[in-house]
């Protein structure tokens, strides 16, 4: 998806600085606040509360399924654009995670 440019060195705009872990259960789930990238920060990162992510880990034999819920979006046009961008970014992140875990290309 175009528009997904990783700039990890830009910590001011591409990090979870000031985000909080809101819940954790070892081997089950992790929940945390999320900051949007710089093109959406003028509205999304000023929201109170920030958007929220919950990642669930579900054992399935020798594998573990990972499910993600990212909530807290509103229904205005700029929020819809931000959600679509983030949805694509999560897809890229999960493909990279799968590639790293499986030691090869994503399937």
Count the E strands: 4
Distance between the termini: 17 Å
Q: List the secondary-structure elements in sequence, H or E.
A: EEHEEH
| Class of secondary structure makeup | alpha+beta
Task: List unreliable stretches of 5+ residues.
Answer: none
Radius of gyration from the alpha-carbon trace, in angstroms: 15 Å
- Quaternary state of this entry equals single chain
Q: How helix-rich are the residues, as a percent range?
A: 25-40%
Number of helices: 2
Q: How many separate domains make up the residues?
A: 1
Compact overview of the structure:
The chain is an alpha+beta fold and 107 residues long. The protein has one domain (21-98).
Give a structural overview.
This protein is α+β, with helices and mostly antiparallel strands and 107 residues long. It has one domain. It has two helices and four strands, in the order E-E-H-E-E-H. It has helices at residues 41-44, 77-102, and strands at residues 21-25, 29-34, 51-60, 63-71. It has a four-stranded antiparallel beta sheet, with no helix packed on it. The longest helix is centred in the last third of the chain and has 26 residues, at 77-102. The radius of gyration is 15 Å and the shape is globular. 7% of the residues are buried. The model has no long low-confidence stretch (mean pLDDT 87).
Question: What's the arrangement of secondary structure elements?
Answer:
Elements: E1 21-25, E2 29-34, H1 41-44, E3 51-60, E4 63-71, H2 77-102
């Amino acid at each position: 998806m175009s528009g997904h440019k990783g700039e990890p060195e830009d910590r001011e705009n591409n990090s979870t600085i000031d985000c909080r872990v809101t819940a954790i259960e070892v081997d089950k789930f992790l929940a945390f606040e999320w900051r949007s990238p710089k093109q959406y920060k003028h509205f999304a990162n000023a929201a109170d509360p920030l958007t929220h992510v919950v990642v669930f880990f579900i054992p399935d034999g020798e594998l573990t399924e990972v499910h993600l819920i990212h909530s807290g979006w509103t229904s205005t046009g700029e929020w819809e654009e931000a959600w679509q961008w983030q949805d694509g970014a999560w897809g890229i992140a999960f493909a990279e995670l799968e590639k790293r875990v499986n030691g090869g290309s994503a399937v």
